[in-house]
Specification:
The structure holds 2 protein chains of 2 kinds. Chain A is of the alpha/beta class. Chain A is built from 8 helices and 18 strands. A 7-stranded parallel β-sheet of chain A has the order 7-11-6-1-4-5-12, sandwiched between helices. A 5-stranded parallel β-sheet of chain A has the order 15-14-16-17-18. In chain A, strands 8-9-10 form a 3-stranded antiparallel β-sheet. Chain A is globular, with a radius of gyration of 23 Å. Chain B has one domain: Rossmann fold, CATH 3.40.50. Chain B is built from 9 helices and 14 strands. In chain B, β8 and β9 form a beta hairpin. Classes of the chains: A alpha/beta, B alpha/beta. Chains A and B meet through α3, α4, β7, β9 and β10 of A and α3, α4, β7, β8 and β9 of B. β18 of chain A pairs parallel with β14 of chain B.
């Protein structure tokens, strides 16, 4: 068990593969920076791997005060036992008060294993993190400056704020894409601490035989404009309307789970609780009723245009522009209006 | 030779069918308004275990921790081909978070002979995907998460393909292992008519108690304890008694169970009400749309 250490640092697990830092630890840095500043403690990144080139510096540029660097040939590739063992030892040695992980396949494989070893709390898939006080019902005891681990639960129908005060560290995995990436500051200076670890072959319980990366067909997270269609679009053929509007705006085409399940478009395009979380400048939602599961993935868009023929569609509650009408007429109208205003043709690939 | 598979399953509220009635006014969830179902990916874990038994022989044991009503998914597992079903039910399990749950489950799995432990990737009520990896750590065995295909099982090694979201990874490990299984792994078989006939009267002890209690409203001067015992013995003889374990039987350290074993606590629950700060109705005609597009260009939303 790890002690409650009020002076403990805030840590981010710097997930990397083949020396390349993943997006999620970078996304985590700006939020983690704020948490550390609020608590008045240092922000550190823990990077495990082999033969890093410039990775620690990069983490410092993104906001880390310190980087704990563990380089070892047996850490060349991620696997649960070896990484869990090293992270546990680091946590045990330095007693950070907060440890954050991206809720990636790797983060969701690793963090619970560490939590079990450390007998610490862990909250999965957080969408926000804050520092706050908690009053225990009954005893009235107040715990100050805890990590509020905020996440949707129950299929996105409720938002739960989770805390842990009697056993530390406070750990959470954070959803990909819910926090904006900070701008790197190449002048930032920080401390790089090399850590020695004892690892043997028997810590590698997996033999990785083969790996295949399938590049995503579309990068929704990076898109400035997204045009999304739901089941209301009606058919795969009619989904061409979504592609057309997306092309005309230079936008990424997207869809709800229902539209993906109906085969209108590939799963890579799915926005929502079980798809990608996006925060574009403009989100056009056509034929989307706006179930909470979908809203969980897009409600942070700066502007939302909703087109629906059902006045009671929940999507209208979050829309900035509400168009009550038939998308089959409205979308061509939008395309016409955009072309008339001289917007250049986008170059989004249509497949 | 055969492999002993232990499948951990969970009964969950069907979060896909949430209606207005499912939320209480204070923002908490009204569980009684939701149908309770077999967690979908746990069915995939069960199917994988059954297909291992079909090919290599061995035994499939299903375990669930939950309220007495969770006996129904154990029966469902027997209908689909599981050999043995175990209910862990104990009021002291209440309020367990994933850490305490994995501890209690580890006490149960340790009572069994196993080669492969299988869990669904995650449960739809919490979507945490934590209990599997935590259980693997507590058992001290290798975990393979996000399994989408079992490639090979031979002797004491297993080869599986993991779904990495942006691709796949093929890994090999020595048994025993714990797998978390995704929805893409297989199509779960349906209940077999013969098995339904065989197991429809299978009951756990707590169900027998409830049945006797509700049948005996007039409170006959019968000794209900004795009656329960007799009925359970009879079921056991017919192979229809769902095993029931409590924390005493599991010899669990109560400090690690329930509320005291759970480091995470709820600070606050809010129901989701999302609203736009300012909104505008746009007429679905040429002028309305043109004005909106003009505004979006003017404020540089589209450029």
């Amino acid at each position: 068990m790890i002690n409650v250490n009020r002076e403990g640092e805030v840590w981010v697990f710097a997930e990397q593969h083949n020396g390349r830092l993943e997006d999620t630890p970078i996304e985590l840095m700006s939020k983690a920076r704020r948490l550390a500043d609020t608590l008045g403690v240092k922000l550190a990144a823990a990077a495990l791997g082999n033969n890093f080139k410039g990775l620690a510096e990069k983490l410092i540029h993104y906001g880390a005060d310190k980087v704990y660097l563990v380089e070892h040939p047996l850490l060349e590739r991620y696997q649960t036992r070896s990484y869990s063992k090293v992270m546990y030892d680091l946590i045990h040695k330095h007693e950070p008060q907060i440890v954050l992980y991206g809720a990636t396949v790797t983060g969701r494989d690793l963090a619970p294993n560490i939590a079990s070893a450390a007998k610490a709390g862990l909250t999965a898939d957080c969408t926000d993190l804050q520092i706050g006080d908690h009053k225990v019902a009954g005893s009235g005891e107040v715990h100050k400056n805890l990590l509020f681990q905020i996440r949707p639960a129950f299929g996105g129908n409720i938002i739960a704020t989770i805390i842990n005060y009697d056993r530390w560290p406070q750990m959470a995995t954070v959803r990909e894409g819910v926090m904006p990436q900070p701008k790197p500051d190449t002048k930032r200076k920080g401390e790089i601490i090399r850590e020695d670890v004892k690892l043997s072959r028997k810590d590698l319980t997996l033999e990785i035989l083969d790996e295949h990366k399938r590049p995503k067909k579309v990068d929704l997270k990076a898109a400035r404009i997204i045009v999304a269609g739901g089941a209301g679009v009606g058919s795969k053929e009619n989904f061409q309307l979504i592609w057309d509007l997306a092309n005309c705006l230079g936008a990424a085409p997207a869809a709800t789970r229902a539209a993906v399940d109906l085969g209108f478009i590939d799963h890579d395009h799915q926005v929502g609780q079980t798809g990608t979380t996006v925060r574009p400048s403009l989100y056009v939602a056509a034929g989307i009723s706006g179930a909470v599961q979908h809203q969980a993935g897009m409600s942070q868009s700066q502007k939302i245009v909703a087109i629906n023929n059902d006045p009671d569609a929940p999507i209208f509650q979050v829309a900035h522009y509400k168009i009550l009408g038939d998308l089959n007429a409205v979308i061509p109208g939008m395309i016409k209006a955009i072309k008339e205003k001289g917007i250049k043709e986008g170059n989004t690939e249509n497949n | 030779m055969g492999y002993n598979c232990v499948v951990l399953i969970k009964q969950v509220p069907d979060t896909k069918r949430i209606t207005v009635n499912a939320m209480n006014e204070d923002g908490t969830v009204n569980r009684s308004a939701l149908p309770a179902i077999f967690n979908p990916e746990d069915l995939n874990a069960l199917e994988l275990a059954l297909s291992i038994k079909d090919e290599f022989g061995g035994k499939v044991t299903v375990i669930t921790m939950g309220l007495p009503a969770a006996s129904s998914i154990l029966r469902d597992s027997l209908f689909r081909g599981a050999d043995e079903a175990i209910l862990i039910t104990d009021p002291r399990c209440a309020a367990s978070d994933t850490l305490a749950t994995s501890y209690i489950l580890s006490c149960a799995v340790k009572k069994l002979d196993y080669d492969i432990v299988l869990c669904g990737r995650q449960a739809i009520d919490g979507d945490t995907a934590q209990v599997g990896p935590q259980l693997a750590e507590k058992l001290g065995i290798t975990q393979i998460t996000y399994v989408e295909e079992l490639m090979e099982l031979s002797g004491k090694t297993i080869t599986a393909r993991r779904n990495m979201g942006n691709g796949w990874q093929q890994v090999r490990a020595n048994l025993p292992v714990l797998l978390t299984v995704t929805g893409e792994a297989n199509t779960p078989r349906v209940e077999a008519a013969k098995k339904i006939m065989k197991y429809k009267n299978a009951r756990s002890k707590v169900e027998v108690e409830q049945e006797i209690k509700s049948a005996n409203t007039d409170a006959d001067e019968q000794n209900p304890k004795k009656l329960v015992e007799e009925r359970c013995n009879l079921l056991d003889k017919k192979g229809l008694l769902i095993k029931q374990w409590d924390l005493d039987f599991l010899e669990s350290d109560l400090n690690w169970c329930g509320r005291s074993g759970s480091p995470t606590k709820v600070h606050r629950i809010q129901s989701v009400v999302l609203t736009a700060k300012e909104s505008k109705d746009v007429e679905p005609n040429e002028k309305g749309i043109s004005d909106m597009v003009h505004e979006l260009i003017k404020d540089k939303t589209i450029a």
